[in-house]
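Me: I'm a chemist; would you kindly supply a protein sequence with its structure tokens?

Assistant:
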Amino acid sequence: MPGELLILGEYDSSKETHLATDRAIDQTLRHLKAEIIHRWVPTEEFDFDSLETAAGFWIATGGNYVDPGKLIEAIQLARVCKIPCLGTCSGFQHIVLEYAQNMLGIEHAGHTEYQPETPEPFITPLPCSLRGKSMRIQLSRDSLSFRIYKELKIEKKYF
């Protein structure tokens, strides 16, 4: 169906990041008054024909993709076909891996967090993590964020 946003990844309702992804999309669609349907598609069930009618897709955070090879193929197809593609956290890291493999020619570029024995380490785990931590954020008075929160200082938690 035209206008469908596919969220590629293994949905887990116990993960705050997956719930936050759904909330962010829902809030954005309401704000934009956009009529786009979004649905989660597990990597192993992804059907490449669905990209032909997708408005775009989001490579979900959370890692532990059942079929990371298929995920890389889907990202490549989106890039080649110029279909909008967004990745958050580990999703973005896989977009970087796809680029390294298919555009830079680093055939076995891998992520040592998921593949410790990868022959060509390209992404390594961050030495620190913000997961679960809160941070105070200073907003600018003339920003959209200030208009939404109606406060100059807010506190947000990293998922």
User: Anything to note?
Assistant: The CA atoms of residues 138 and 153 lie 5 Å apart.
